Amino acid sequence: MSTDTIKNIRTFRAFKSRNYRLYFTGQSVSLIGTWMQKTAVSWVIYTLTHSTFMLGLTLFASLFPSFLFSLIGGVVSDRYNRYRVLLTTQIASLIQALLLAVLILLKHYAVWEILSLSVVLGIINAFDVPARQSLVYEMVDDKADLPNALALNSSMVNLSRIIGPAIAGIVLESLGDGACFLLNALSFVAVIASLLMMKLPKYITKVHKKNVFGELKEGMAYIKRTPSIAFVIIMLGLISLLVLPYNTLIPYFARDVFKGTARTFGVIDSFIGLGAFFGAIFLASQKTGANLKKILCINTLIFGIGLILFSHEHIYILALLFVMIAGFGMMSQVTITNTIIQTTVAPAMRGRVISLYAMAFFGMQPLGGLIVGSISKWIGAADTLMGQGCAALLLGLLHWRFLHKEKLKKEQDLILKEEHHLQAL
What is the pTM of this model? Predict the structure, then answer.
């Protein structure tokens, strides 16, 4: 099969853009390292503390700073050269990863030190996410390919989630936790190299009449004027608060339910990623104009069903199947919300709206992680996870109700328009 033929396949059509191909390649390597580090951090924290609450606190430390600084990160993305902002955040992430690797390799570390470096990474991500997501728009030559590029981004994230934890499980057992952190630090070289090889249009300095707080206010006003965007961001926030922190409990299932090791934890995490990867490929294969809101609603229900089935399953093979189903449904939450924002928001507002999307995703998860960690101490991890699955089902039904009302409103507006037309005749 020739290169031209591959580029014309619907699933991979965004690869026609050279800059996007470079980004995809470099980011793929970096994300494998990121997932290795995430797996290693969770395993090290749980091994040291044997506490599901501490797992929730670790998630809080890594994500809540992103919630605090995301709005500022969005303004920075809209005011300055996004390419240079992204390059700076990637270099900063490399330094953070190196510091963590050195700390672990020296074997003299405490939980608070790991949590502190997690906070640093969260602050970096507050500026990284708006710049990176906004820059993808500029990397794609044909803007009709943007939904495909965003779906491929998700497939990249979730393929790395399959590979990263699996490698981490092996490395943790054979080479030790320090090797995982060092490999993550090295992986940032790939994405930095890919950014340096890009050929983007020359940045034109913009004159900003408003200060940072004025632009923040302008972004919030824009969200109020576009209720369709506001709805998907609110839904993502609720999912992030109530459901997505389920992954903080996975070390408990790996170690205490299935009596496994770090490799078991890596395998479970990889099966979550496998399901999410299939979900991303499913989205990438959709035709232009597909009803993404309906797909998001259905996949939220699938997410909930998968979690409920997994929560009390003691047969390892079946548990892997159920967690893969959950991963399939989970993937849509972030990808479809991002796609709706990227394809409908005004270009001048893209960074600020994406920062609100990042706040909903990064900000609610750490709060949810603390809630999940606390509740699991009272009622147990299995019942907590089942409750999260039920929450996903309720949110999916709420979404379905909203879509039904939206459809009825459109039909009524169409009838009124026809009546006015007939009266005019």
Answer: 0.69
